[in-house]
Structure formats: structure tokens, C-alpha cells
Amino acid sequence: MSEQLRFDGKVVIITGAGNGLGKSHALLFGARGAKVVVNDLGGGAHGDGKSSAAADKVVEEIKALGGEAVANYNSVEDGDKIVQTALDAFGTVDIVVNNAGILRDVSFQKMTLDDWNLIYRVHLNGAFRVTHAAWPIMRDKGYGRIIMTTSAAGIYGNFGQANYTAAKLGLVGLANTLAIEGRNKNVHVNTIAPIAASRLTETVLPPEILQHLKPEYVSPLVGWLCSEECKETGGLFEVGAGTVNKLRWERTRGHGFRVNTTISPEDYEAKWAKICDFTDAEHPETIAASMSSVLDNVNNPKRGGNQFIDLDLAMSQPPVEVETSYDERDLSLYALGVGAGANPLDSSELRLIHERGDKFYPLPTYGVMPALNGFMKLMQEGKQPPGMNVGFDRVLHGEQYTEIKRPLPPHAKLKHKSKMRDAYDKGKDAIGIIDVHSYDETGEEVAYNEITFFLRGAGGWGGDRGPSGDVNVPPQREPDAVIEEKIGDAQALLYRLSGDWNPLHVDPEFARNFGFDRPILHGLCTFGYVGRHVIKAFCDNDPRRFKSIKVRFAKSVYPGETLVTRMWKESDLRIVFETKVKERDEVVIKNAAVELYEQIPLAKPKAKAVAAAGAVAVQPAKLISADVFAAIGSYIAQNPGVVEQAKTLFQFQLSEPDSQWVVDMKNGKGDVRQGTVDKPDATLDASDENFLAMCTGAADAQKLFFAGKLKIAGNMMAAAKLEFLKKMDPKLAEDAMKARLAAGGGAAPAVAAVSVPAQPTGPVSADVFSAIGAYVAQNPKLVEQAKTLFQFKLSEPDSDWVVDLKNDTGSVRSGLVDKPDATLTATEENFIAMCTGAADAQKLFFAGKLKIAGNMMAASKLEFLKSMDPKLVEAATRARLASGGAAPATAPAAAATASKAGKASEIFAALTERLGKTKKAEAAGAVLQFNVSNPEAHWIVDFKSAPPKVEQGSANGGAAAVFGIADEDLVALAKGETKAQDLFQRGKLRVDGDVRFAQKLSFLDSLI
What we know:
Distance between the termini: 62 Å
Oligomer: single chain
Shape: globular
Strand content: 15-25%
Number of helices: 34
Radius of gyration: 39 Å
Helix content: 25-40%
Strand order of the largest sheet: 9-11-12-13-10-15-18-17-16-14
């Protein structure tokens, strides 16, 4: 215990000190040697009346304690008179506690000018008058402590207290400024927001709460803040019932718009989620800090953007990573897709296609495909590079640069890191450039791609227009080589199999909606053709010296047209070229060049395997969290009773390093595994180090919790059920560590190694249902005999199974079915006993251990179980144990999942109600057809009729657009969980007809 803080010789003024908090403050200071001026007007809680009795009584109590005190009966509006009392009695002032206050609660609608003014005069003006009179005294002597008293209502607002809250928050602002002005003169100013039993709270809070809100819990904080030892100033503290918290301002990182440009309300709408996102909040402490974001936006101008492109977000985010792989078949298919092998007798082209030949050389232009496929994969998942928010309807491939670091291997697993490098504002439209670096499994870069997109309608933010002028311009002379090649009529259909599934290149209706009379060829297909032309003309169809290619896509190409590539050799290592379509005499590839390597580059030498093994060996031979969880698993297996006692599902979230673990002491016989669970009863967060310290007894869990080093979410009381850890034999963890070290020299054990307890060697329900499935498959006549759909609901552990002896040839599967003929309920133990002959079904039924709902007579049709060969169950058990002991998720004879009811009817019923309330025509004059699948349903939304009409059925060719969508995706659309654009890009929304109506599906938003 530190030495008691004293106030000997200090002169303290406390306003409103006749009762409650003020009285408690006065008694504390008086008991610790201070000379106290007890100010109290003696009025009521609403500012009426006046009496000297309250102040006099407190003075007497202080004197009885051996202290010095005088009374003052002035209103705080006469602050100079209160301070003069201190000067007359004690000669100076050291501490001022502004505590006086009254209430005039009334709703703002009914508030009078007197209600407003009286509260302002007592709280804010009164604190000002007292402090202003004491201020010069404190500054001159170089010492002072001032306390302002605000309230939670002032900080957060409260109904019926507009006058009170305004004045109370005004005190916070006053204190903040005085803290700044007084800092250099050793005058500290702090603010408290107390909650305590007083005249102002006794009419608001119930007695059982008030008894814990003693003023004596607040005064110690005031004493500390007013002591010489305390250096705090400008602080704001909530205090009451033994708790104290410091408050600070918090704000989001927000969004900075580009300066010197026009900002619209729609710009704020587009960025509102980011503006309000507190995920990475900051805490300004001064006005200078509060202006930092503004000054940063001015001094470091934002690159800008709009709802389609956010350059600043793109520049600030790390690259997006995605993994892909390819093999010889992919390379051969690509080569055919870009026209190789048109002459099957040309052996030099055969090397680009025949992966089993003596020489097989991947086309280097394939180097863009893994990156593109990764990008398309992200789009299917609804993801885009940070800073981009565009769909296929806006994107055209503008330019492409591909660099091959060494000849592509015939097969590889690649990791791609993509990032938007830049974007240029072309007025109405925009250009975006994405960099993609591709690495093999050793970390060596094998390819680099620079993809330039032309983004229709995405410009106009006032950004840089980018470089202008042509590059790679052909010389004014005849070309050194010319290759003419006709494109196959079905070439786009073949090329798309390499991964570019944009419907613009295959769907005639889609193409027409975008202004083309038929599907156009992929730009990258043309890219492959012209790259192949250069290789054929200058490399004798040996692509290994090919370094890079850069092209600009000038015009679209149609399947069936003829490409004419004219090439100029600038040097031995550089060829400039351009490509025309012969039939139209139009340049389709321009500003193009290929660079060659002087020598074929080789792959970098890989590190020796011995060195890698050595790296593993240096892992420290010490206990890690995986050892502890393995030990917990062993302990639960040895002590199954702890599961029954705990009945709790725990989630552990460890950090440094990160790992997640589940300790399931709720379901079945217990389980420990690595990973996460959806709805744990309690989640414990700690660093790996603190978790180990807690489990080994080196640290106390309670101390870790109160130190903020162990966080518990969910049922905090459930955490107490981990007490068994103290009883766990430390040898279990030591044994787990030894086993780990023996198995891998320090590596953490695999998840399976800690999944516990061990599965029983005897049959489990999954084995029995697997055997039933096999038996049904061997005896198809059972279905004709039984004609019954059975539902089994087992417990301890819970599982659900369907035995379908009614449909098709019969099936057995895990799960539920909507309308079973008979439902049988039992524990797993009794079910297995019944099926293996260890228990009689009839006795179980009459003992209440087997329950049958539905057609009880149908249950008799399970008699075949008696004639089922027990070896089927034994075989299923052996198979399960051989595979690692885990029960199969479904029986081997599992069939399709049970049919489910769709939500389409509910959604279109809600749409009918919405359209009846609004006159807004989302798709005026159009009939839209919705073909819903899984389950199947057909709906028409007719915006031609007035009012719009919704009905079930098909439009029979009369729809402007037909949408194909799964029921679950329709639900996500109606809930606002996704957008039509996202579903379309991921191939989950098919649009036939006028694709523009896909942009008008907002009428489905938030229907359910």
C-alpha cells in the first residue's frame, strides 16, 4: 500500500457540498488535511428555496474530524463571492470542485425559456464564474487543480433533458480548453461523469440500484485527480459503483475525396459504408490531430475515383492472391484455341500441341491464362481487386503486356498476386491497369502480366488522363514477314474452354445487346494468334526464346475473318508488328512488339532437400499449444464423466501464432479438434504464450482475465467448467510433445492427431446405416414390398437418417425428409442394440426407449433388419476404422438430398404487395420472365399492365428478358445479401433477351 495522499495546507472550494457527492468530496478532503470551503445555496433539486443548514452541518462534521472548514451560502452565479470567502478565511485557493447542480427535466416540446436558462446559469455559467474567479490565483502561484462535473446524459444525450445535457456537455468543452491553457502553469483540469445516489438520481433509479451507487465510490477519484502526484489533465472519466473508466474521442478513418473536384451527394452515398466503418478507428486528442485527415487530404491529394474505381483504396491495399494450376492438356487445348495445328502435317506446330511428343513447347502467350483464370475465379466468387467495382457490361480489354521469365513448364501450380497499379480518367470512360505477378511453388516468378482495361462509363472524376501518343510504331517500309491466317467459325467456342467464359463471345443475344451483330472473338484469342505468328516467322516455331509481347486491341475481330500480321525486325531481339482483318481492311492489333531472349533462360537452381530438412530440425523442443490440446483430448477420453459435468462447447482463439481450437464437452463423448465452430457456448481469446502459461500453472487464469490478457465471450460462467485443466496430469502434455517431436522434429501435430476421443472399435450408427444401404442395394425387391419412407432420429450423439424404401430403387442417407411415413426415435446405443440383435425392438418400444410417430404399422416393415447379414455391419465398421476412425458423413448408398420447399412464392407474393403500393415502374413497358430452379418455379412480372402484375407461369416467348436463377440465389437477392451484377458475374444469373433489364432488378431488394 502506497503512502496516503494528503492535502495538508491546501484550500479546496467545493460547490453544492451540502449533500450527496459534494458532501462526500468535502469530508474526504477535510479528513486528509485540506481547508475546505463548503458552498451550498441550500435550495431544492429544482433550484427553488434557500437554506444555510446543509452547508453548516457539513462544516461541523469536518471540524469534528479535526479538519478546518467554513461555509458559504452564495449561488454559484456569484462565484467571485465564493472565492472571496476562501481568501478571507484561508488566504488562497488551490482546488476547485464544480459540483453544484439542479434538474428541470421536461421534453423539448414543453421546455420553457426559464427551464433552459436556469439550468444553464447553475451548471455552465456557475462553473465558469467560480473557476474564472479562482483562475488568476492558481496561475500566479503556479499550482491548481480543477474538477468539472458532467454526466452520462451530457455525453450521450437523454430524453427530457435537452437543457441539462447541453449544459453538461458544455462543461466538457470548457474543461478541455482550460486544460490546454493551464498546462504550462501547473493548473490541471479534469472532468468526471459520476453516477451516484443523490437528490438528482433518487427519483430516477430504483432503491436496489441506488444502494450500490454510494458517493464514497466517486470521491476517491476526485481526490486522486486533485493531488499533487497526479499529472493527468484534460481527462474525462465515468465513475460509480466502484468502477472508473476513461473516455476518449474515436472516429473512423473516413474517406478523402479528391480536392478541386465537384463532390455530389451520390459520392457520399457510394462511400457511406467506409465513412462509418470503425474497424480501424483513430483517436484524436487535440484539435491539430483532428485536422490531420483534412490536412493530409490537402497536402497529399487523393488520386480520386468514383463508384467504379477507387484509386486510393487500390494503392493502399496489399495484392490479392489467388492460386491456379495447369497441365499439358490445358496447354494443348489453349494452342488449339489460338489456331495451332490447323495443318496437322506441320511437325513444327505439332510441338505446340502434342504433349507426348519428343519436344513439347508451351506457347508463351499462355502466360496470361493462369492469371486471367485466377481473376475470373475471383469474379465468380463475387470478388474484385480492391478499388474496382465494375461488371462485364463495362469492361473491354484495351492492352496486354505479358513477360515470360523463363519458358513455361509443361505443368505447374502457380500463385498470382494482383493489384491495380493505376487508372486514368478519359472523361466519360476510364482505363485501369492491373499488375499480376505469377510465382511457382518454389517462389520463383515465372510470368508477369500487365492487363489494361477500357472501362465504359467509369470516368469523370477529374483524374490524370494518362500518357498519350503511340508506341511501337511500324517503320515506313515493307514488312520483313507477313502471315495470313483465317480464323475458324467456331474458334471462340474452342478458345473459351481455356477459361474465358464471358458470354459476349458465345451468346448471340448477349452480343447484340452490347451493340455487336454476333459474338466477337476474345481479344486474348487474337493475342495468341499474333504471338504465334511472330514465333513462326522468327523463331521457327520454337517459343523458348520468347521474352515478352505487348499489344493494343484496336478493333474487334469476328470468328471466320482472316488475320494478316505484318512484322518488322528492328533487331535480332525485337520485332514490331500490326494485324489487320483482311475482309474489312481494318487494323485490329496495333502498337505491338515482341522481345526475344538472346539465350534461352533457365530456371533458378532449387535449394537442396537436405537444407530444407535441416530447417525443420531447428524447431524448438518445447511445449506448444497443439501438445496441450492433444493432452486435453487424451484426458477427456480417459475421463468421459467430465463431458456430462461440463455440457459446454468451447472455442479457443489463440494468437502469436494464430490458431483456432474446439473443445467440445457438449456433444457425444467429447471431442478436441483444430478449427472453428459456428455457435460455441464460450469463446476464449489469448496469446499462445498466455494460454500455455495458464494450462501449465505458470499463470493464473483469473489474473490473466482481469489484466485483459484472456478474453471470454459468450457464457462467461461456462468458462469456470474448465477447472478440470488443473487436475490434468502434466505428463499427458509431455507425452504429446514427445510424440510430436519424434514424428516430425518440432512441427505441430496434424489436426487428426488431436481429434479425440478415439472412435469406438465397435459399430456406430453410421456403420449400421451403411450396412442397410448395402443390403437395400443387394435386395431391390425390398422397396416394392415395403413402400415406406422411414426417418430415424437418434440421440447421444444426435444424428438423423433416412431409409427410403418407397422411391426408385431405394436409398439410405443422412439428413431429414419432409414427410416420412414413419419416424423412429431412439438413442444411438439402443438403435445399435436393436439392429445387432442385442435388444428386442418390441421391448424397447414398450419401455419407452423406442418411439414411433406416423404410421406405426409401417414400422413392422423393418423386419428385414433381422435377416440382414451381420457381416455387412462388421465390414462397414472395419472400413471406418481403416479410414481413420471417423464415421462417414452419409451411408455409401446415399441418394439425392431430400427435396426442399422453395421461397419463390413468398418472394413474388411480397413483390405483388410492393407493386400495389408504388407507382414507380422499374422496367416500364416490359414483361420479365423468372425461371427458378431447385425447386423449379416460373413467374412473370408484367410491367406493361397498369398496375404492374405478378403471376405464376410462362410468358411463352413474350418476355423482354428471361432470368434463370436458383431459388437460394433468388432469396439472397431478395434479402439484399447480393446484387444481380454479382450473381451474373459468378454465372449464377442467366439472362436471355435484353440484358439491360438485369440492371433493373432492384425492385427485388429487401422483399424478405
